[in-house]
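> @MW can you paste both from yesterday?
MW: sure, first one:
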Amino acid sequence: MSTLRVAWTLERAALRGQLEYRLNFIVSTFMGIAYQGSGFAFIYVVLHSFHTIGGWDFSDLAFLYSLRLLAHACCYLPFNQIDFLDVTIREGKFDRYLVRPMNPLLQLMTNRFQINAVGDVLTASALFVYAASIAHVDFSPLHVVYLVLAVIGGALAEAGFILAVSSLAFRFLETWAAAFLVDNIYLMFGSYPIRVFGATTAWIMTWIIPVAFVAYIPASVLLERTNGLHIANVVAYGAPVIGLLWFFAGYQVWRLQVRHYQSSGS
């Protein structure tokens, strides 16, 4: 608990540091809103012409998109600095994390606050409120509990895979392209019903890259569309647990790869 308190204190200090630059804070926040909002606007334009995608109408896709963005925001808010691990390693800054009495991953996460994460959170919250008002979702107590767990599980699934990919920087030093590719895969495939991309892609986006567990599968459960899923219902209802397992796997990759760290000597 003391470690978590220290991490929370460092995170708040990093945020306060970024708030010192008010114009940058405002511009970065609006950039996050514009970037994430443009994806939703694209769905609106497409559905205005074609009405449904894979049998999902606008209200269903709005809920799916907002759920994915909500999970992404919950992932990106604490884990945004993982994307910059390769830069940290090349500049020799990772050395300081190894000599301090705190988990190196927590130190990396709280080293700096990425302002556009605020835009992601604001956009995700606004879109989810809107989507929930038009989607046919029964917000019973059981469904609300599943929703909360699904968002957490989706965030952990995304964080776990990104952590595993970024951890390769301990061996290869430069992983920006791979991390950028993964981020775009989650954005492009995670915002639509996975099955429309074909059976092979659906399998890959479920068991190789856990895109489906971030939003598509939880949204299918909440929208009562499980009959169209490509996995068993018991797995769909256990999606939050799958997300936790993915994060555990990603953290084990981190622990394995960090052993190969060699200081740049700078």
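MW: second:
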Amino acid sequence: MPDDVSVIIPVWNGRAMVERLMESLGAQTYPIAEILVIDNGSEDGAPEAAELRGARVVRMGRNAGFSRAVNRGILECRSAWLVILNSDVELSPSWLERLMAAAAQAGVWFAAGKILSAGDHKVIDGTYDALSRGACAWRVGQGRADNEEFSRARAILFAPGTASLFRAELFQRVGMLDESFESYLEDVDFGLRCACRDYRGCYVPEAVAYHVGSAALGKWHPETVRRIARNQVFLVAKYYPARLFFHLAWPVLVAQTLWGLVAMRHGTFWPFLRGKLEGLMDFATVRRSALAAGVSSDRLLRVLQESENEIRDMQQRTGFDWYWRVYFALTRGGAD
């Protein structure tokens, strides 16, 4: 008898996309115990459309943020496995079956598949995440042409919240998503806690999904940039104690400055700056967060080095973005 799987989908408007996602869930070759839609105050009938297709809807009554919606979904579910999906995703019919087959291996706590751009199925939207010592993340492969480099199964440290499978027990062991992040990098924060406790996952390239990407706000919407900029500071506040921060001060400065230049290039420098200021204002409060308790500096540094080496190696094999080329040139390429 197959293990029970529940699906959690935070929703804020986007009825047409929710309908497409529900159709693709109905076509899955692996049985789904329950589809749970957490509605963040939609006004276009998106949750009602999901209900008509068999989902159970929990209404938050307002836009409570992605992290809080996912956490509510986790509390509502009783299955051994949980799928977390963005509402602007569409799944291939065998997506869940392939992830479950890979995740059944000993020592695998989560699984992520290949996510292609909904607008161009030859382009990678994302695979799995990786984090630099400078507290900037890369969704590995994003924007690149799909090729053999992204068709190789491998162990991973970070699963994207876009479309991934998790053992429900994992959230009991390391805690749920940090609601102070609201949305953006909350999955990296969760992955960092997992990696520092040696809970790892796998990348399953045969499990294919399609993603519109930043459908709610837009990739370079000022609010998106503000939250990412703030949450980068939150990562440092939570995981970099004073000794480690001074050790990594130069990579952090380089990574954050370069990301500010990227934001400026997209006309969002002021939201970037506002996010950094907000992060610094809340730095002390976030630093006291219990979610990061028990993570040793030595273990964290090893995880960051491993993840940064993954970024460098994949950049070398698929072609350097200017951001990472400059970052590695200025920080000695991940060497310590």
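> thanks! The longest strand covers residues 200-211.
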